[in-house]
Amino acid sequence: MSLHKQPIAEVDNIVRLFTKPLVKPRKGRARRLYGFLKREKRTIRAVDGVSFSIHPGECVALLGPNGAGKSTTVKLLSGILCPTSGEARLFGMDPYRNRTECAMRYGVVFGQRTLLWRHVPVMESLKLFQKMYNVPKPEFESRLQEFSEILEIRQHLGTAPRRLSLGERMRCEIIAALLHKPEIIFLDEPTVGLDVVAKKRIRDFIRRINRDENVTVLLCSHSMRDVEELTDRIILISKGHIKFDGSKTQLKHRWHNERRIRVIYRKPKTRDWKRQLHETTGLTDLEVTNGQFELTINQDQIAVPSILKLILDLVTIEDIEVKEPNLEDIIRGIFGEDEFHAPSQPREVST
Q: What is the rounded CA–CA span in Å between residue 328 and residue 248?
C-alpha cells in the first residue's frame, strides 16, 4: 500500500437523501381519497456526512448493520447514485458525471444481483464485456484462461447463469468484473449464500488479484471471515455516520481490550489463591470448576504477562490458553446483536 500516492477513491462529507411516501391508515372514503391525491412524504438520510479516502492497493472493509448506508456509499462512489450534498471522487473525477470514464477503470460485484445475462451462455456475456471495455482479444483470452483455471469454472463457460449453482455463478461474476484490469473493485456481499469451498476459492482469488495486480478492494460483507482474511483496514458505518476508521488491531484495542484465559491446574500453591485472583486489579470475570478456571482481564489495567506470572505463583499448571477477541463478537458488541443482523429503522429527517 502506497499512502504517499493520491487517493484512488474519496468521499467528502457526502449526504444522500431518499424521499418515500408516508403511508397512514385512513378511515372514510373522503379521507382515503384525500390521502391518495395529496401524498405525505418522509425524507430518509441513508448517508449522513460520511468522509474517507482509499489509496491504491488497499483492501478496505466497509461494515455496519443492514440499512446503515454501506451499499448506498458504494453506489455513490461507483457513480450509480448522485450525492444530495458533499463530494465523491474516483480517480480524481466525479463518478456520477464521469460515469463512463470511471466505469472503464473499476469493477463491481453485487452478491444479490448479476452482471451476466441469465439466459445466454456465460461466454457470450464475457465476450460482450470484452467489446464494452475494448479489451484486446489476446489479453481477453489470456486473462480468461488464467482466471477460469484458478476459479475452476472453464467447464461452465458454455452454460447459462440460470443453470449454474450460486457458487459457480459468483465465480463467473468475479471474472466478468476483472477481465478489463480494473484499478479498484467494489465487492458487495460477494460470498453471500456460498458454501465453505466456494468462499475460500473466491477469497484466495481476490487476495491474489490484490497482491499481483495491485487492485484496490472495497468490501461490504457480513462475513467476518471475509473481512479477517482479505482486509487490513475497517470502516464502521452506523445510521449513515462513520463510527470507526482504522486497522483491525486498532479496532480490537479500542472496543475489546479484554483477554479470556483458560487454565487447567493440578493443585493450588496457596490456600487463598481464589481470593488473590478475585482481588487482582483488571480482573473482570472468574469462573472456577473442578481442576480448571477461566478468567477475563482488561488489558488497560493489567497486562497478560503479569496475570500469567500471578497464576504461575498461585497454582501448578497443566495447560493454559489465552484467547484473542473474535472480530465477529467485537462487531456484534459494537452494534448490538439485533441491530447487526436485522434491518435498521429508517432515519427520518422531515415529513
A: 12
Distance of CA 102 to the CA centre of its chain: 22
Query: Other C-beta atoms within 10 Å of 177: how many?
Result: 20
Domains and CATH numbers, the chain: 9-105+182-253 (3.40.50.300), 257-324 (3.30.70.920)
Cα–Cα dist 104/133, whole Å: 6
Nearest to 6 by CA among 55, 41, 69, 51: 55
CA distance 183 to 74: 15
Alpha helices in 214-238 (DSSP H): 224-230
Structure confidence by residue, pLDDT tens digits, 273-323: 999 998 999 898 889 988 899 998 888 888 899 999 999 999 999 999 998
Phi and psi at 274, nearest 5°, equal -65, -45
Render 67-88 in DSSP notation, one character per residue. Answer: TSSHHHHHHHHTTSS--SEEEE
Alpha-carbon distance of 169 to 153, in angstroms, equals: 9
Per residue in 9-54, pLDDT (tens digit) is 999 999 999 887 766 666 666 666 666 666 677 788 889 999 999 9
Rg of the chain (C-alpha set) = 26
Which 3 state secondary structure label does DSSP give 13? strand
Cell 467528502, residue located: 12
